[in-house]
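re: ur question from earlier - yeah i can do the single chain one, its not a big deal. heres the input i used so u can compare w yours
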Amino acid sequence: MSTRICALFFVLSTLFNSVECRAIGIRLPDTDFPEETPAQKFARSDANHDEVLTFDEFLHTELAYERIKKDEFDYYDTNKDGVISIEEYEGHLTVQKERSDELRAEYFGKIYETFDEDFDMKMNEKEVRKMLAERFLLKPRANFAKIFSSFDVNKDGGLEIEEFIKFDEEMPFEELDPLERIDEQPAAILENERLPKTKKPKDDSRF
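and the output i got, formated as tokens:
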């Protein structure tokens, strides 16, 4: 595995694991890490020079991974004493959860602000269909009414926030189709995709 590919893999892994948390100060590894032969990589990782790698030593074989984990460690180690205490570890996870909750509230709040047209704090089937079309360019199939009803636990014709969160998490997207034809796409999207109007050429003829 090349250094570049390894760097990309571990960067993506880190980002996916913290996608909803406060930005971690993890920097991308330098892309000009020296390429190592297998023998050089083995020798560098063999800390006690006994010509075998323990699991701990094996974790150091990829420079990009080692750099990312060191930066992550430094982020957890808030007092910079070289170790992560249980208080630092739990504190970091608490901040992650708080930020995750903030982002979720912002995400769902924006959806209701945009698509709850009658401001009843519920998303009816028509509003959900519009949301799927405008946000995801997806078109429900003929069985969508049945799917919608399965998430409408109290059968009041709309998805309240708890019901909509479950819908957002468990909606079977394989039961939706992409909006393929341009005439199916929402007007708001088409408006943004229109080409600029062409100015009418001046008539320079002389009579």
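The chain has two domains: 3-97, 117-193. not sure if urs matches, ping me
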